[in-house]
Amino acid sequence: MKFSNSFLFGAATAAYQIEGAIDKDGKGPSNWDEFVKIPGKTFENTTGELAVDHYHRYKEDIRLMAEMGLESYRFSIAWPRIIPNGTGEVNQKGIDFYNSIIDECLSYGIVPFVTLYHWDLPLELEKQGGWTNKATIDAFVHYAKVCFEAFGDRVKHFITFNETVVFCGHGYLAGAHPPGIKDEPKLYFQATHNVFSAHAKAVLAYKELKQYGDIGLSHVFSPAFSVDDNVENKWAERHANQFGINWYYDPILKGNYPDYVLKILEDRGWMPEILEEERLALTQAAPLNDFIGLNYYQPVRVERILGQAEHVEHSRENATGAPGNPSFDGEYRSVSMKDKRYTKWGWEISPEGFVDGLRLLKDYYGDVTMYITENGLGDEDPIIEGEVCDIPRINFINDHLVAVKKAIDEGVNIQGYYAWSAIDLLSWLNGYKKQYGFIYVDHQHNLDRKKKASFHWYKSIIESRGETLNYPT
Ligand code: BG6
Fold this sequence. Notes:
Layout lengths: L7 E5 L2 H4 L12 H5 L18 H14 L4 E5 L2 H4 L9 H16 L3 E7 L5 H5 L7 H17 L5 E6 L1 H9 L12 H25 L4 E7 L3 E3 L4 H23 L5 H10 L7 H10 L5 E5 L4 E5 L27 E3 L16 H15 L4 E5 L8 E2 L2 E2 L2 H19 L4 E7 L18 E4 L5 E4 L1 H11 L10
Parallel strand pairs: 1-2, 1-13, 2-3, 3-4, 4-5, 5-7, 6-8, 7-10, 10-13
Antiparallel strand pairs: 8-9, 11-12, 14-15
Helix pairs in contact: 3-5, 7-9, 8-9, 9-12, 13-14
Bound molecules: 6-O-phosphono-beta-D-glucopyranose (BG6).
6-O-phosphono-beta-D-glucopyranose binds next to loops.
């Protein structure tokens, strides 16, 4: 029942959600710094101005991670800290900050796993069209190279992008992330294609540098399953997976797009502009991509919409991941089911769906190296006599690690697991109320850190290499 010695037990965070210090030491403004100023865009209008002040407390936080026995820490670099306006001068203080984080990790033997883009785009680039502007591709590749050159001697795992579907979908369809645009499928597909091109070009640049590390990207992995065997709903399942899985993985792993989706984009006038040199970059980069990261929280249960799709007014509330929305193209809707379990935020809890999804992915793409780069339970943790008793989180992570082990035993090539999150942090749309961490942050008392029950539990799981997980009998 043990995980192999090379399997990495880790946990993850993202810069905007923990650092704070949004204008310190030369950092430029990001699209998020601006977006959160619009009333109602975030829960209780929370901002990342202070977050959990990791910028000043990173030593304490990494010391706690080391005490927990973390083997690897996934964190992101804030692009506007490195290149404040997106394209110009490099900010040495930004480089220094991440050097300190990396060195601190390494001093404890923690493997740094670095995400280059976890949604905070330099504001200047957003103003010029963000990911719909092809100039952002070049800007990203330049930024990526700066990071490879500054950190690549010690960082051997780079993730280019985190969850393209989320920042592009929320950015251009739901209006819930910057730039806050609604119902613009053409822009959405253009943005996703530009991101894939930026990924491909960054992979090529990375391999050219011969730093002998691994590079890949992370997607949110929400496999779609039909609510029943009805032929229409089964159609919805395939359709949803073509748009939600194949559109996102094919260009990275195969270097081209799924014909099924291309045909629909053509018919509906949503085809993005794809330059020949971008096509070439995608083809050349695909075999050089070392892994894919999967952020798994929940599957999506789908049912075909027959007739006119109902109109749902976009809002922060219906963009927070709970089922109940029609798909952007009006072909199906996501639904909650009576026989499933859900979190307080309406996300389905389904380790079974995880295993089924991983099997599906193996069928589609064969023996691809994967890391689970996020997985965790968002909850309002109970505090009993001063102790954070996050037993539901322990159960959640236990069951999902058991699912990972099962998939590995079936031949899925998974090399590591990163719980979301290492420490309580700012949820983009749910503020501080929704907690994910092993480490509690006391917002009433000076942001004091405190170990949760799950902290001790995860430590014991890492120590036993998973042998002490609660496996079903
Ligand atoms: C992932 C993101 O989509 O989900 C994280 O990569 C995010 O940044 C996590 O925090 C959980 O989402 P939420 O909305 O529950 O905070």
